[in-house]
Amino acid sequence: MSRSAAAMVLLPRLAAFAEAYPKVVLDVVTGTGPADLVAGEFDAGIQLGEYIQRDMIAVRVTPELRLAVVGSPAYFASRSVPQTPKDLHDHRCITLRHTGGPYRWEFEKEGKSVTIAPDGPLIIDETHLAIQAALSGVGIGVAYEEQVAEHIAKGRLLRVLEDWTPPIPGFSMYYPSRRHQPAALAALINALRVPHRNDR
After folding, report:
1. Are residues 156 and 88 in the same domain?
2. Are 101 and 179 in contact (CB under 8 A)?
3. Which residues pair with 160 in a beta bridge?
4. Which residue pairs, CB below 8 angstroms and at least 24 apart, start in 189-192?
5. Do 23 and 42 lie in a common domain?
6. pLDDT value at residue 197
7. 52 and 74 co-located in one domain
8. What is the DSSP letter of 52?
9. Structural domain of 130
10. pTM higher than 0.90, yes or no?
11. DSSP reduced 3-state for 145
């Protein structure tokens, strides 16, 4: 799973899981992009639903998420605030590297979709580092709303283009179809799953 998934999905529920299942040891590997579970000999992974292979069993572990486009007050002190996604072409953007190359920022408003290939001084593979770069005034970054909510509330970051960022599918735990599922994996799935969601 990504570091973001570990922080947002696993860690908040880990203490309760460890208390309920004291003999289960979770061996967690974080990285960017989807992992080949079979080749890596992993029992399961956590990834955004849209990136999970169709032959995997997927169980939702978060509700829908929203991305937030943010920059520091110092960055915006001498620059105009973007009103539309195309205005980002006039800004320094902190680009996230994703599977297959830099992540293209996707926006939508009133049925109109816009995709931007951001340009800037930094390409990085982790949202936590992108947030730190935005806090330092490097440029405008994108992260999950939950990750930057406190920074926004305390005025350390300013959110822009909020009306252009609709909800996206959240994280899912995924694993190969197995006739005999390990008991520890079944317990973890039950501990992390979002109730009353349609799983595939």
Report:
1. yes
2. no
3. 69
4. 189/44, 189/59, 191/13, 191/16, 191/17, 191/20, 192/9, 192/10, 192/13, 192/59, 192/61
5. yes
6. 46
7. no
8. S
9. 67-164
10. no
11. helix
Q: Are residues 73 and 45 in the same domain?
A: no
Domain count along the chain:
2
Residue type, position 119, single letter: D
Helix (H, G, I), strand (E, B) or coil at 28: coil
Q: pLDDT tens, 89-139? A: 999 999 988 766 778 899 999 999 999 998 999 999 888 999 999 999 999
Distance CA 42, CA 110 (A): 41
Burial bucket for residue 111 (CB in 10 Å: 0-12, 13-18, 19+): exposed
Q: Report how far residue 67's alpha carbon sits from residue 57's, in angstroms, rounded to the nearest whole number.
A: 25
Question: Does some domain include residue 200?
Answer: no
Interhelix angle 127-135/145-153, rounded to 10 degrees, is 20
Angle at which helix 183-192 crosses helix 11-20, to 10 degrees, equals 130
**Which secondary structure element, helix H or strand E, spans residue 187, and what is its range?**
helix 183-192
Joined tokens for residue 161: 């283009």
How is residue 79 written in tokens? Answer: 């620059």
Q: Is residue 197 part of a domain?
A: no
Name residues of the chain where pLDDT drops below 50: 196-200
Residue with tokens 């800004």: 91
